Amino acid sequence: MPETDQSPTLEINRDGGDGLCLVLKGVWKMKQDLPSVSEVETAVQGQSGLKRITFQCEGITGWDSGLMTFVLKCGDLGEEKQIEVSYDGLPEGGAGLMKLATAVPEKKDAARGANTRSLFYMVGSGSIHLATEAKEILTFMGEATIAFTRFLTGRARFRWRDLWVIVQQTGAEALPIVSLISFLVGLILAYVGAVQLAQFGATIYVADLVGLAMVREMGAIMTAIVMCGRTGAAFAAQLGTMKVSEEIDALQTLGISPMEFLVLPRMLALCCMLPLLVIFSDFIGILGGLVVSVTTLDITFTQYVNRTVDSIDLLNFSSGLIKSTVFGVLVAATGCLRGMQCGDSSAAVGLAATSAVVTGITCIIVADAIFAVVFNIIGI
Amino acid sequence: MSEEATAPKIHVENLTMAYGSFVVMNDLNFEINRGEVFVIMGGSGCGKSTLLKHLIGLKDPAKGEIFYDGENFTQAEDEQKLKMLQKFGVLYQGGALWSSMTLAENVGLPLGEFTSLSQKEINDIATYKLSLVGLRGFEDFYPSEISGGMRKRAGLARAMALDPEVLFFDEPSAGLDPLSSRRLDDLILELRDSLGATVVVVTHELASIFAIADKCIFLDAAKREQGAIGNPYDLRDQTENMAVRNFLRRGEEEVPAVL
């Protein structure tokens, strides 16, 4: 098309005594390199006694929003300098669009401006946010405790079928990923241990190392982290979506507590299933160590099994289990908490899931550190 | 008529609604009579849905009180509130069906929780309620397997599960084609007539308002107060309040022909 070749030009003429006439020519489209409004601004500043800005657009052969943006900026400029801007000279349709664009005056107080960036504002709103957050967590914990006591006294309202479905999702369906991770962790521990222990000719102690590490620490913590990413996020996303689609409101207006109906079965399921998964993970991890030992370290199957059985006692084993129950509660609680806190947009659901995983993993690690200190003090 | 029958079903006194320090509406005062279809109308973002949330107890008023049958709902103890809640049925905007349950389970859940009926009786009632909204045969469908209009009707079946005295509708015609929305309006009127329920509807669809409302309240977003209360035809023809007049006439001086 020939018209695309005509580049846009802007000519600024003093028109009579008190007017400024902008003569626009060529194709004024967004993709073109359009003249800038600052040219008009300099022209306006250079002249005194201006009352009017007019447009002359006979030379325009094509235009789109690029032209209108330019005109709107000229309009703003005119308003700022208190010069009347007349849109009559615009191409057909252009004057109508300008009328639309200027029909509702700019809402000055709606724009979020400087005060949100000041230090005091940020510190203040941060503290308020922290306090609300702390209150929400405490409320959630309190409500969860009440729901749990109601469950123990047999008064909690929830569907047993939901519980079994969640048990299946958080238990049996998590086995493959938990096995894979545990097997690899056992295998890695065995390799790391073998290199060190071989220096003392004590490779047989790889069995002790893998066994104790899995049973006391790695089994519980790896499973909890896997479940946090898998189930904690799922809980947050499920509850968050229910919040967005008003399903939680629907429960509340029926007088059914979402805490009992939704959160309780999830907490129960996870704090029952996580210890079971951890036992499974312990065995698979030891199996990983066994495979490395038998294939690369000249240790026989019987030797390895005997060493493992000798090194692990019930106390070690149960310390991992106690942790796992607590981790189960933490993962379920953070997942559900973030889900229930979810805002009412689809973006909020994504945030809830992310924050469930972050909070969950942080809580697990902190709790594990506390356990390490406490177990050390009481000598387990 | 006895005093019981003439007393207002719902009575709202000096209700001020706020989100934190942002006040949505100031000093709402109105009464809704038994068996009335009451419409809450107003432009987008004026607090219609917020008012509904206050009426059904999802939000607590910043100030003021709400009474049902003369009983204070705002100040009620948990147990008492629970009892009052069971007399409500709420249809949410998107239906808000529980997505992990079939339609029959959705309708049956309130029955299972609050009555001592056997599972078979519950199923029968669920089938009956679903057939009232024209969804017989869809008992075993999940909410994701049916259309938006059907979901809304199923939500209505669930709202009616406990034979409520007050039915609340949040934007019943939003997202429905004109025919479905007309059918839903007819259904609302029919239910009101046959169940004797009081109906509270949040909507800004003029056609719906004129078709179903006995009385309506206009929330004025600019002034943050109630605009006018009354029959929609009277308001359209007589009110002095320009905001209400413009709203009911779509901003035109003459009454639009379709209405």
Describe it for me?
The complex is a heterodimer of chains A (380) and B (259). Chain A has 380 residues and is α/β, with parallel strands linked by helices. Helices cover 69% and strands 8% of the residues of chain A. Chain A has a 4-stranded mixed beta sheet with strand order 1-2-3-4, covered by helices on one side. In chain A, strand 1 and strand 2 form a beta hairpin. In chain A, helix 9 crosses helix 10 (301-311). The longest helix of chain A has 39 residues, at 206-244. Chain A is elongated, with a radius of gyration of 35 Å. Chain B has a domain at 102-163. In chain B, 37% of the residues lie in helices and 23% in strands. Chain B has 10 helices and 10 strands. In chain B, a hairpin with a 4-residue loop joins strand 9 and strand 10 (225-230). Chain A binds chain B through residues 157, 159, 162, 165, 242, 245-247, 249-256, and chain B through 53, 56-58, 81-82, 85-86, 88, 90, 92-94, 96-100, 109-110, 113-114, 158.
Q: Largest beta sheet of chain B: what is the strand line-up?
A: 6-7-8-3-9-10
Oligomer: heterodimer
The run of helices and strands of chain A is EEHEHEHHHHHHHHHH
Query: What is the helix fraction of residues of chain B, given as a range?
Result: 25-40%
Uncertain runs of chain A with pLDDT below 50, 5 residues or more?
none
Please tell me the overall pLDDT of chain A. 88
Query: Major β-sheet of chain A, in short?
Result: 4 strands, mixed
Strand order of the largest sheet of chain A: 1-2-3-4
**How large is the count of helical segments of chain A?**
12
Helix content of chain A: 55-70%
Instruction: Name the overall outline of chain A.
Output: elongated
End-to-end separation of chain A: 85 Å
> Major beta sheet of chain B, specifics?
6 strands, mixed
**Total domain modules of chain A:** 2
Compute the number of strand runs of chain B: 10
Morphology call of chain B? globular
Roughly what is the average pLDDT of chain B, rounded to an integer?
85
